[in-house]
Amino acid sequence: MSFESLGLMPELLRAVREQGYETPTPIQAQAIPTVLEGRDLMGRAQTGTGKTAGFTLPMLQRLAHHANTSASPARHPIRALILTPTRELAMQVEESVRTYGRHIPLRSTTIFGGVNINPQTKALRAGVEILVATPGRLLDHQQQGNLNFSQLEIVVLDEADRMLDMGFIRDIRKIIALLPTQRQTLLFSATFTDEIKQLAGAFLKNPALVEVTPRNTAAELVRQIVHPVDRERKRALLAHLIQSRGLEQVLVFTRTKHGANRLSEQLDKDGISSMAIHGNKSQPQRIKALEEFKKGSVRVLVATDIAARGLDIDQLPHVVNYELPQVPEDYIHRIGRTGRAGSEGEATSLVCVDEHKLLRDIEKLLRKDLPKQVVTGYAPDPSIPAQPIETGRQGGRSSGRPGGRPGGGAPPSHRARPGARGK
Q1: Cα(275)–Cα(46) distance, rounded to whole angstroms?
Q2: Are 200 and 42 in contact (CB under 8 A)?
Q3: What is the Cα–Cα distance from 168 to 389, expressed in whole angstroms?
Q4: What spans are recorded as compositionally biased (Basic residues) (predicted)?
């Protein structure tokens, strides 16, 4: 199947070709024709499957007849709203809109918390057809009278399960109540829980159902391996693996913000360039760290679980679980950072005696045992007893509002064929 066969207009096909892609991913092949028909859609797909292009491309086509080059704000009312749980994902989605819409004169912008609201207000008042937003900051703008949804045609709820996990359900309901009842609604989620089904039942009308990845299935192209090691020798083993194997672009996950900072500093002392990214970092700090990592000037990016679904690096080769997550499903999201859109990847877990139960829970979720391999010189001491695991506020899923306004100051959580970065 080709993108041409999906019924996309020449301007979009040109943009896709310029990105070097010829074949749509399964979610794109199923979602694009459905969205072009104008139907509501419920899509279940794990991260890295190309779902963002699955709604971005047909959305651009459905709005293309509104495209114009007029300077008048009145000629650029909001036609589409894309809600995302985090600012990182909002930026990635809006980048996808710009990438694929480069030959169609539609305006887009993104609004999220943690930054000055005034430039966002200016952009909104200048007029935009496509708005990508986090829930909290969108409601801030609504209260200030900066938004008018009277001509909105399409709304997308992206990473809906994550938005519910982060406590955004009230804000989502408030936002949906502001929108015209006659609209096309698209909902994407990695899982279809009862809550998600209830949400879909309230907001979607006779939606088409698209599912491409079985629930809790780790990326097939990811090679997973466990290295048993004593807790005190994890950092030394990590440095050894990176240096002895010449690894570049390594995304390392820790459980706590403090642990991320500490590990990043230690790696730097070992001569391995590293930066940390987590909820306490400012937005400019996060953007800088991600950019440095993507271009290769930083070899290791250390992240907390809250970033597992907000980071998206094209063809990321290595993910390391320096500490296993307390929530087994977060292991899936972590290793989903690699092995994306046809690229092979490797997920390595450094497991000490304290984490044996966490490992069993992950293997139970995966329905298979992960291969174990002791690295020479780093065999664990069987006489060392297990200890309680250090946790942080972001060790698992948040049931409330993290870091102030949800979607405003919320820390990152969780995306080139159109299937890797933001596509």
Answers
A1: 27
A2: yes
A3: 29
A4: 414-423
Give the single-character DSSP code of 326. Answer: S
Asked if 203 and 41 count as a contact pair (C-beta separation under 8 A), the reply is no
Please give the helix or strand (H or E) that residue 1 lies within, else none: none
The one-digit pLDDT tens for each residue of the chain (423 residues) are 889 999 999 999 999 999 888 889 888 999 999 999 999 999 988 666 788 999 999 999 999 999 999 999 999 999 999 999 888 889 989 999 999 999 999 999 999 988 899 999 999 999 999 999 999 999 999 999 999 999 999 999 998 888 887 788 899 999 999 999 999 999 998 878 788 888 889 899 999 999 875 544 555 668 899 999 999 999 999 999 999 999 988 999 998 889 999 999 999 999 999 999 887 777 788 778 888 888 889 999 998 876 555 566 666 789 999 999 888 878 887 887 776 555 578 899 999 999 999 999 999 888 889 999 999 999 999 999 888 876 654 333 333 333 333 333 333 333 333 443 333
**Beta-carbon contacts of residue 369 (< 8 Å; ≥ 6 apart):** 363
Rounded-to-integer distance, Cα 83 and Cα 123, Å: 17
Q: How far apart are CA 283 and CA 268, in angstroms?
A: 22
Tokens of 123: 């952009």
In whole angstroms, give the CA distance from residue 270 to residue 256.
21
Nearest-angstrom CA–CA distance, 2 and 280: 43
Give the helix, strand, coil percentages of the chain, each rounded to 5: 40, 15, 45
Asked whether the beta carbons of 235 and 67 are under 8 A apart, the reply is no
Tokens of 108: 């887009």
Sheet holding 41-44, edge to edge: 108-111, 130-133, 80-83, 154-157, 184-189, 41-44, 208-211
Encoding tokens for residue 29?
A: 């092949």
Sole residue written with tokens 């009277």: 150
CA atoms in the 13 A half-sphere facing the CB of 137: 29
3-state SS, residue 209: strand
Quick one: tokens of 220? 């097939």
Q: Residue count of the chain, please give it.
A: 423
Please identify which residue in the block is written with the tokens 């080139």. 416
Note the pTM of the prediction, 2 decimals: 0.61
**All structural domains of the chain:** 4-211 (3.40.50.300), 222-366 (3.40.50.300)
